[in-house]
Design goal:
The chain contains 2 helices and 30 strands. Helix content is 2%, strand content 45%. It starts with a helix and ends in a 5-residue tail after the last strand. The protein has an 8-stranded mixed β-sheet, with no helix packed on it. It is mainly β. It has one domain: Prolyl oligopeptidase, N-terminal domain (Methylamine Dehydrogenase, Chain H), CATH 2.130.10.
């Protein structure tokens, strides 16, 4: 088979999908300008609608390593991080859910700073922003209330002070200073404290000459129920990364977390941990260049992560690279999850699909699944944008999929 280079260069991007009710929001370069912009469409299939003026470009989330947009349905607003004509001086902006001209979210509060959104909570209308000074080496983290416009300073430091963990009621925040790759120190902020306090690690300014500080590579930090401890990914115990636990009652030593139920084989590393609800998590691996995504339960008493189901990596979602996955917005009712096999689809002549499920292929065709494909439902929703590249067919397109617990 001969494939023209033009067909590969013309492939469209679909990034950072987020589901809100029956509406799907995502970043794409569908426009004529070729730059990324924000779009919305019906989850059951429809023509994507641009939400930003054509001249405005959204940044690539893989480059900024932060949330480019966050949905706040209670306010009917979308928070975006945008720059001006590619100057990379990102600022928090707001637009209505139906789209419009971006306006500053906090007036002139961030003039002189480059801002990134590291966390967001649509239920409480909160966002966690990291502001990098354009006049000096300093990063400042804020808890931002989109409803009242209040900005609560959490901490600042020349080496980052990045928010990387928030508890359920937003009264405690974990921040991270990074000195080099994998060399991190953790700080905690508690509501009522005037500033953050050291939690784990050795700050650079407190190290003695020649002191050996192990690289911990701690990231993807989550509070366990009751704020008893922290669960995160780390390289302290294995170079290919694993899970670690830090007791907040005695935060002097990170303890290893055993992972059971792994179904893959080969070489690779653990790349991401994501909290779903209660003690439920997803654990993602990159094995031989292919994505494996598991759903599992964490037992805090035995420090064990039991992987119960492979969402990605087996069957028709094998031998591919997952571009993005996300739960349904918490403000909408919980629904089921389905990993759809490619051979379970057929093309549809019209985009009139049930709102309970729809798929959009990279090459633009709209299709619907057969009923037999509905299996293994859980109580949460997921969106897959898989860069599916089967070894038997390296030109096969990726797809975006959403499902719910009801199907006519």
């Amino acid at each position: 088979m001969v494939i023209s280079i033009e067909s590969l260069l013309a492939a469209r991007l679909f990034l950072s999908p987020k589901l809100l009710g029956n509406r799907l929001f995502f970043l794409s370069n569908l426009g004529q300008g070729g730059h990324l912009s924000l779009y919305a469409m019906d989850a059951g299939g429809s023509v994507p609608e641009p939400l930003l003026p054509a001249r405005i470009a959204a940044p690539n989330p893989e480059i900024v390593e932060a949330e480019v947009f966050a949905l706040f349905p209670k306010l009917g607003k979308i928070l975006l991080i945008l720059d001006r004509d590619g100057d990379e001086q990102y600022q928090p902006m707001l637009i209505p859910e139906e789209g419009g001209i971006p306006e500053p979210a906090f007036g002139t509060a961030f003039d002189g700073y480059r801002v990134r959104c590291l966390e967001s909570d649509p239920e409480r209308n909160l966002a966690y922003l990291n502001a990098e000074s354009r006049t000096g080496q300093m990063h400042v983290s804020f808890q931002a209330n989109l409803e009242t416009g209040e900005l609560v300073k959490l901490g600042q430091h020349a080496w980052g002070s990045y928010v990387d963990g928030v508890n359920a009621d937003h009264s405690r925040v974990i921040m991270k200073d990074g000195y080099t790759e994998g060399d991190n120190a953790l700080y905690q902020w508690h509501a009522g404290w005037p500033d953050r306090k050291l939690l784990y690690g050795v700050p650079l300014e407190e190290r003695t000459e020649g002191q050996d500080v192990p690289l911990n590579s701690i990231t993807h930090i989550f509070f366990t129920p009751g704020d008893q401890g922290l669960l995160f990914t780390t390289s302290l115990f294995v170079d290919s990364f694993g899970l670690g636990y830090l007791s907040l009652a005695d935060p002097t030593e990170v303890q290893p977390v055993e992972i059971t139920g792994v179904q893959h084989s080969g070489m690779g590393e653990l790349v991401k941990l994501q909290h779903l609800r209660d003690t439920r998590y997803t654990v993602e691996y990159n094995i031989d260049g292919c994505s494996w995504l598991y759903e599992g339960t964490f037992d805090e008493a035995s420090l064990t992560m039991k992987l119960e189901r492979a969402l990605c990596g087996r069957g028709k979602l094998a031998n591919g690279s997952k571009a993005s996955s996300a739960r349904q917005c918490a403000s909408t009712p919980a629904s089921g999850c389905l990993v759809c096999p490619r051979n379970g689809f057929r093309k549809a002549r019209t985009p009139r699909l049930p709102r309970s499920m729809g798929c959009v292929f990279r090459r633009g065709c709209i299709c619907r699944p057969r009923r037999w494909a509905l299996r293994n439902r859980t109580r949460w929703s997921i969106i897959f944008m898989a860069d599916h590249r089967a070894r038997s067919d390296p030109t096969s397109p990726g797809f975006l999929c959403r499902s719910s617990s009801s199907w006519p």
